Structure formats: C-alpha cells, structure tokens
Automatic annotation (TrEMBL):
GO CC, one annotated term: plasma membrane
Reactions the enzyme catalyzes: 4 Fe(II)-[cytochrome c] + O2 + 8 H(+)(in) = 4 Fe(III)-[cytochrome c] + 2 H2O + 4 H(+)(out)
Biological process, per Gene Ontology: ATP synthesis coupled electron transport
This enzyme's EC code(s): 7.1.1.9
Cytochrome c domain ranges (all copies): 277-400
Species this protein is from: Deinococcus humi
Disordered as annotated region, ranges: 1-24
Primary site of residence: membrane
Record protein name field: Cytochrome c oxidase subunit 2
UniProt GO MF annotations: copper ion binding; cytochrome-c oxidase activity; heme binding; oxidoreductase activity
Keywords linked to the UniProt accession: Copper, Electron transport, Heme, Iron, Membrane, Metal-binding, Respiratory chain, Translocase, Transmembrane, Transmembrane helix, Transport
Length: 438
C-alpha cells in the first residue's frame, strides 16, 4: 500500500503528472502490465498442476488441431492487419485534427460515396474470406471416413461410458469401458456421442474439438492423434453438482497394441473367484446385495463382461482392475501397483461405502445406512460392514485384462515426465474421502 501511495501519479492539486512524475507513472504502468501478464500465465500453468498433465488445443499431433491452426493463422493475420490499420488511422486522425492545430470547422463527409463503399466492401471481403476458410475446414473435418474406427460415447451424471460397436464380446454385448477411452493412433476415430440425462460437453483438447452430448441425439464426428500417450478429457457443459469431477482419460495406442487390446477385451470373461475367498464373498455381495440390511446389489447398475451383471445405470466395470482412475477421474493411481497401495484401497473403500458424500450428486446408493437421492427422493441406504466392503473391493481388483493387453503399460502420460511421482503427489494431498477416513 505504501508503494501505491508513494507513486500514485497525482500531484497534491490532482493535476496529471508531468516530467519525472509522468515518467515514473509510465514506468509503473509498464511494470504492472508485465506483472499482470506473468500472473495470468502463472494461473494458466498452475491450472494443470493437479495432474501435471499438459492439456493443449494447439497439440499439432492431431489432424483436427492442425486444420484449425491452419485456419487460425489467416484469421490472426487478418486481425493484426485490421488492428494496425485502424489504430494507425485513429492516431493519425486524432493527431492531425487536434484542437490546438485546427481552428476551422471540421470537413463534413456526408454523401461521400467512395468512403461509404470502402467501409462496406472491405468488411464484406474479410468476412467472406473467413467464411471460405471455415467452410473448407468443415469440409475436411466433418465427413466420416468409411475405414474410421468407431466408438460410442455415453455421457451421464457424472461419468462416461465408451463402447466399441464393431467389437462383439464373446460373452455377449459390445466391448465397453467406463471413464477410460482407448483409441488407435494415426487414423480417424468416429465418435458417436449422446447423453443419458442432461446436456454434457465432450472435450479432450489434444485429440480434437469439443461436441455437445445431448439426450436422444446422436452426433458423430472425427478425432485423431499421431502420438501414443494418455490425454485428459473433461465435461465442458455445466451439468450438475459434480460437473467439475466428470473427467475421463483418452489412451491412444499404436495399431498393434490397440488390436491386442480389442482382441483381449473381446475374449474377456471375468475370473471366477476361489471358493471361500474374500473375492468370492465380494462377488456374492456384488451380485445379490445383502437383503437382510437393505444393501442393494451392485449388479443392478453395473455390467461385468462374462457374468450375469448387466446393469446400464452405472459405468461398465468389466476391466476395473486394469483402470487407473476412480470416480470419473477424481483420483488417479498411476504407479504400477495402483490398486494395491494403502491409499488407493482407502479411497476405493470410501467410494463404495458412501459415494454421494465423496462425489456430490452421485446416484450410487450408500452402504453405511445414510440417506441418498434416488429418483428425486431421499432414500435410506443399506448397510455393509467394513469387512464386506473390503470384500467387494477385493473382487473388483481382480477384474483385469491380460497383462499384454494392459493399455496403461508403457504408455506415457502426455506432459508428465514422471507419472508415478505425479500420482503419488496427487494421492498424498487428497484428504480422507469420508469423515474420519476408513
């Protein structure tokens, strides 16, 4: 505050600064503008520090982004030319026709047809040029190639399901994965997007532009990426209480690894737990619930390939043990032993026990006897003991693809030099998901 008072740029009489005072004011303005730019840049960079993952709509590894960048160059160049021309005309006119230089009345331009034609024709030419560029880009980007890989995207409050309509699972139904989209590199991928409830927004900036996911509407468009890596996706349409926690990962694999994933996913059947094991007890609760305490069966809402669980109200859990995210990306466990770390087990336990507390707006039932919202009404949840919840978690951790089809193996997280360190830092700073922890 002392600095502001000392360099206020005003004399005691309130007159504008002159001489040295004016120079000091200009220097202060220049310095403050510099600080503002640095602060803005810092906010931009820090916005990605939670996951240390680079999210960029200027990632030129994507053909979509390359085409948009090509179109943007012309728009930016035109904007600069217009800005310079208008600024020059403005300052030239203001300087030339200042009051202290001109005493005669200003000339009148009413009826100057040449000037009026110029003021109309020049903007029309600019708009037409930009329109031609836009139509050209749309003609390149919008058609769906016949050879494009197809992925169906379903948005729900507050998660994503990714289904592969061309790959029928041996156990029945399409190959599907929740909150982690696996796609091939160096080819077009046709995404058919819809919503199961409200309007959502699908956007993974590194692979292409954003599209609205609307109920009862199917929108198909192309994305692509040349680089094998893990990319971040987000919901861009305010959709409810946990809009900010509706994320997903895009895992781009080279063609050989992508084919390996599809083949393993097609043949996948959930493993049968050993008798009398924690996994077997968890499997029984997952399928049947616990009617004596009002605990609902997880299978009523979730699908697991190769079992009788065929629910569609929640994300597909067929490959849950292979996934490295939980709660639609609220938590990331990037290290090799992801689900076996104590912190990961604690968060998974809390998630099963009381999901609506962990993620506001979550429609999962509670298993600690507390109330939750179902069909717009408050409903009392069932009860599972901590041991029973751990049994369910143990069963979920067994739902893994073969190691050779693990799409996370050796796939770098784009923009992160050390994914394991990143995940450890993120997990460590996360407070206990439920009061008092586990």
């Amino acid at each position: 505050m002392n600095t502001i008072h000392r360099h206020s740029g005003q004399s005691q009489g309130g007159h504008p600064p002159h001489g040295k005072s004016g120079a000091a004011a200009r220097e202060r303005l220049r310095r403050n503008l510099g600080y503002g730019v640095m602060a803005g840049l810092g906010v931009t960079l820090l916005s990605g520090c939670g996951s240390r993952q680079l999210i960029s709509m200027g990632d030129l590894a994507s053909g979509f982004n390359r085409e948009v960048a090509f179109m943007s160059i012309f728009a930016i160049v035109m904007s600069v030319i217009i800005f310079v021309a208008v600024s020059y005309a403005l300052f030239y006119t203001v300087n030339k026709f200042r009051d202290d230089k001109n005493t005669a009345p200003p000339a009148q331009f009413h009826g100057n047809n040449r000037l009026e034609v110029i003021l109309v024709v020049v903007p029309v030419i600019i708009v037409m040029a930009l329109a031609v560029l836009t139509v050209r880009s749309m003609a390149i980007l919008n058609p769906v190639p016949d050879q494009a890989s197809k992925i169906d995207v379903l948005a729900r409050q507050f998660w994503w399901n990714f289904s592969y309509p061309e790959v029928k699972a041996d156990a029945g139904g399409n190959v599907t994965n929740g909150n982690e989209m696996i796609m091939p590199t160096k080819q077009s991928v046709a995404l058919t997007i819809t919503s199961g409830d409200v309007i959502h927004g699908f956007w993974a900036p590194n692979i292409g532009g954003q599209r609205a996911a609307m109920p009862a509407t199917l929108k198909t468009w192309n994305v692509d990426i040349d680089r094998a890596a893990v990319y971040q996706g987000n919901c861009t349409q305010l959709c409810g209480a946990s809009h900010a926690n509706m994320r997903y990962k895009v895992i781009a694999l080279d063609q050989a690894r992508y084919n390996s994933f599809l083949a393993a996913a097609k043949a996948y059947r959930a493993p049968e737990p050993a008798a009398d094991s924690a996994e077997a007890r968890g499997y029984a609760i997952f399928m049947q619930g616990k009617p004596a305490t009002g605990a609902l069966a997880c299978a009523a809402c979730h699908r697991i390939q190769g079992t009788t669980a065929a629910g569609v109200a929640g994300p597909d859990l067929s490959f849950f043990g292979t996934r490295r995210t939980l709660g639609a990306g609220m938590w990331e466990f990037m290290e090799e032993e992801h689900w076996e770390t104590p912190r990961a087990k604690e968060i998974l336990h809390a998630w099963i026990k009381h999901s609506p507390y962990v993620k506001p707006g979550s429609l999962m039932p509670t298993y600690d006897g507390s109330e939750y919202t179902a069909n717009g009404k408050q409903v009392k949840g069932g009860v599972l003991t901590d041991e029973e919840i751990d049994d369910v978690a143990a069963y979920l951790r067994t739902l893994k693809l073969p190691e050779e089809a693990n799409y996370w193996n050796d796939t770098p997280v784009y923009g992160s030099s050390d994914a394991a360190q990143n995940a450890s830092a993120q997990i460590a700073k996360t407070s206990s998901p439920v009061p008092g922890g586990k």
